Amino acid sequence: MLVSLSALVLFTGCSKNDSPTAQETNTSANEKPKALKVLYATVEAGSEAIIDAAKKYEQQTGIKIEVNTFPYNNLQEKVFSELAQKSDHYDLIAIDTPWVPKIIQHLEPMTTYIKAAKPESLKLNDFIAKAFMDTSVFKKDAPQLNPPQMNEINLDQIVSSGFDIWSLPIQSNVLTVSYRKDLFKDPKNMEAFKKQYNRELAVPQTLDEYLDIAKFFTRDTNNDGKIDLYGTTLMGKKHEANFVDFKSFLSDFGGSIFDANLKPVFNDEKGVKALETYGSWINQHKVTPPGVLTYTWDEVATVFGSGQVAMGMNYHDMKLDPKVKGGETGYFVFPGVDNGGNVVRGPHFGSWGVGISKYSKNKQASYELAEYLTSPEVQKGYLKFNQHVTRKSAYDAAKSLSDPLLKEYYQVLGSSLSVGVGRPRITNYDQVSEAVQIVVNDYLSGKKDAKTALNEGAKQVETLMKQAGY
Q1: Where along the sequence do coiled-coil regions lie (predicted)?
Q2: Is residue 439 in a domain?
Q3: Are 124 and 89 in contact (CB under 8 A)?
Q4: How many domains would you assign to the chain?
Q5: Is there a domain that residue 226 lies in?
Q6: Which of 130, 129, 66 is CA-nearest to residue 369?
Q7: Cβ–Cβ under 8 Å, residues 329 and 320
Q8: Would you call 468 helix, strand, or coil by DSSP?
Q9: How many C-beta atoms lie closer than 10 Å to residue 209's C-beta?
Q10: Are residues 10 and 69 in the same domain?
Q11: Beta carbons within 8 Å of 24's beta carbon, 6+ residues apart
Q12: Are residues 105 and 141 in the same domain?
């Protein structure tokens, strides 16, 4: 309720003409503030790495950097409240991408700062393009619009298309797969799998291949008549994890939540196929543990870590508990769907950016801090904190890590970000997500067939979009 009330204030209390002038809210380019205050997340966005970097910046510049961290829900409430009050208390704030359409009028666009500092100093093209465009590039008066797609970030093209840069990406999460490498390397398993499926037991490239492997590993390992090893995990609980799980399958099949006009289309044939495929792993093929309809990312990590599954999907590098005898972990990119020889992949991804409060009195200094915190050299330093970095050079640096497991994860993480699919850019994202969660759960629990459930969900979402003014 508090978050909703804050959001309401954001809409009703915003005016282009009642904010402080640039002269009132900004130190000059040559004037160094004594302190900068940063509002940031906790472990969700790698606070340990950011605090470490902030201390180094403080030592280099003499500017005191105060980083206040909050867990996700509290942070969202705090961000919305501070901006709604037009408070100048915080200069730099952590922004989860779905928040941008709600708060964009309260953010300072960074484009002019980037140009003044010369784009080459920021090294824009070192950011993973897809993550940067999804996280940072929005149109102020139409934040629902997707930016132009580009493999190399072109600032002039961004500006000429009517978009601005509103934050700099500092941490990115994407759906990846952790797997029992020890089971895949076992000679007996390799021989048995090849005999059964007439191909090598290897990292799957498609959902069909993934299912074959999941079926192969779902078994009774101690001959007590009960299945004690399952092929994979899913996140079946009515929860945000459920929504992004389904969205990843949907993207694999070439579908999406909305069309270009923000009309819900997840109930089309691609959506039905995606949901039926997702549900079949649970109800038909039974390759998931029996408690899967209660799982979110936390339960998935626990189940994988205990060695109960051969493969598991999540947004961080899951590891096996040392108690799992002979256990060895590996990682691979979320599989896709073969479309005429081309594998279409669409793992869900989302990023945190650092943005400047419109009401900060230290905007230039805030930009310089944001540039530093997201700079190539600083991001390379984040690797020791296992931060999900956003720059290509940081992923190149990860190739030299001494830990082979961490090195493998970074390779998979970087590859996944380059093909990831972000969230819809809407002000009522939470409501839409919950509506889809409900119908997905209705199907998974056997209350409705896939088409009926999705049609009802699309109708509900269409109503929500009209209520939100779309």
Answers
A1: none
A2: no
A3: no
A4: 2
A5: yes
A6: 66
A7: yes
A8: coil
A9: 16
A10: yes
A11: 361
A12: yes
Do 168 and 32 share a domain, yes or no? yes
Quick one: three-class SS letters along 294-310?
Answer: HCCHHHHHHHHHCCCEC
Residue 462 inside a domain? The answer is no
- Which DSSP category does 402 fall into? S
pLDDT of residue 3: 45
- Rounded to an integer, what distance in angstroms lies between the CA atom of residue 256 and that of residue 435? 15
Q: Give the residue from 416, 431, 458 where a domain finishes.
A: 416
Same domain as 334, residue 205: yes
Per-residue pLDDT of the chain (470 residues; tens, 9 = 90+): 444 444 444 444 444 344 444 444 455 556 789 999 999 999 889 999 999 999 999 999 999 999 999 999 999 999 999 999 999 999 999 999 999 999 999 999 999 999 998 767 899 999 999 999 999 999 999 999 999 999 999 999 999 999 999 999 999 999 999 999 999 999 999 999 999 999 999 999 999 999 999 999 999 999 999 999 999 999 999 999 999 999 999 999 999 999 999 999 999 999 999 999 999 999 999 999 999 999 999 999 999 999 999 999 999 999 999 999 999 999 999 999 999 989 999 999 999 999 999 999 999 999 999 999 999 999 999 999 999 999 999 999 999 999 999 999 999 999 999 999 999 999 999 999 999 999 999 999 999 999 999 999 999 999 999 999 99
Which pLDDT does position 118 carry in this prediction?
74
Co-location of 274 and 154 in the same domain: no
Residue 239 sits in the same domain as residue 328: yes
Do the beta carbons of residue 91 and residue 99 sit within 8 Å? no
Query: What DSSP letter does each residue of 199-251 carry, written as one string?
Result: S-----SBHHHHHHHHHHH-B-SSSSSS--BBS-----SSSHHHHHHHHHHHH
Residues 195, 141 share a domain:
no
Q: Are residues 119 and 12 in the same domain?
A: yes
For 21, 113, 361, 429, the CA distances from 14, given in Å and listed in that order, are: 15, 23, 19, 20
CA angle 241, 243, 245 (to 5 degrees): 65
Query: What SS3 class is residue 138?
Result: strand
Show the domain range for 285. Answer: 176-344
Nearest Cα to Cα of residue 47 among 78, 68, 73:
68
Q: Give the end of a domain, one of 416, 437, 461.
A: 416
Could you give the CA distance from residue 201 to residue 422 in angstroms, rounded to a whole number?
A: 31
| Rounded Cα distance, 449 and 231, in Å | 24
CATH code where residue 18 lies: 3.40.190.10
